[in-house]
C-alpha cells in the first residue's frame, strides 16, 4: 500500500477577521458517510451561524466541498487545497463563519477560509500511514542532536529514549530508508554503532506538518 497522511487527532482553531469569527474543525474519517455525519453535526451545533463551509477527502474515494452561500470558489475550494497541499486524506473540515457586518471580498474570504482550515489541521497534527520499521540505536549523549536530525531527514521519528551511561534511541523509519540510515549511522559513529531492527508494522505515526 502506498503511504498516505491523515489527521492525528481532532483539531479546532478560531480567529476573528474584521469582526467575522471563523471557527475551523478538522476530524479524521474513514468514509464519506462519516464525513457527511460530521458536517451535519456541525451545522446543527452552529445552526445560528451565517455559513458552515466544508470539504472532505477520502482515501481512494471522493473529494467534495461546499461554499454554503459564500461567493463561489471563496471557501470550499481553498479549504480543500490546504489538505491537498499537505497530502492529507481521510479528513473532513468544517469552517463556521459568524458574520460581523463587514464584507471581506472574495480575496479576503479565500485567505480567511484557508487560514482557518490550516490552523485547524495544525491543531490536529498530521500522521503518516505506511509500513514503519522500528529500530533500537545506541547513541552517545554528544551525538543525540545529530542523530535526531539524521532520523528526521529520512522522514523518521524518535519514538522513545532509554537513558543510561549512553542512550538507546527507539526510532521509526520508513522501510525504504533503513539502509540509508545504517550507512549514516556508521558515518556518525565511525562504525562503532549498529541499529537493531525490533519489528515492523503498518500504522499511523505523527510527523511534522510542512509550513
CA(first)-CA(last) distance? 26 Å
Radius of gyration, Cα only, in angstroms? 21 Å
> How would you describe the oligomerization state of the chains in this entry?
single chain
* Helix/strand order, N-terminal first: EEEHEEHEHEHEEHE
Overall CATH architecture of the largest domain:
2-Layer Sandwich
The CATH topology of the largest domain comes to Ribosomal Protein S5, domain 2
Beta strand count: 10
What's the CATH class of the largest domain, please?
Alpha Beta
Proportion in helices: 25-40%
Name the CATH homologous superfamily of the largest domain.
Impact, N-terminal domain
Structural class: alpha+beta
**Chain-averaged pLDDT:** 92
Domain unit count: 2
- What is the makeup of the main sheet? 5 strands, antiparallel
* Uncertain segments: none
Shape: elongated
| Beta-strand fraction estimate | 35-45%
Number of helices: 5
Characterize the structure shown:
The chain is an alpha+beta fold. It has helices at 32-45, 76-85, 105-124, 144-153, 178-188; strands at residues 4-7, 11-17, 20-28, 51-57, 63-66, 91-98, 126-139, 157-163, 167-174, 196-207. The chain folds into two domains: 4-124, Impact, N-terminal domain (Ribosomal Protein S5, domain 2, 2-Layer Sandwich); 127-207, Alpha-Beta Plaits. The chain has five helices and ten strands. Strands 1, 7, 8, 9 and 10 form a five-stranded antiparallel β-sheet that branches. A five-stranded antiparallel β-sheet has the order 2-3-6-4-5, sandwiched between helices. A hairpin with a 5-residue loop joins strand 4 (51-57) and strand 5. Helix 2 (76-85) crosses helix 3 (105-124) and helix 4 runs antiparallel to helix 5. The protein starts with a strand and ends with a strand. The mean pLDDT is 92.
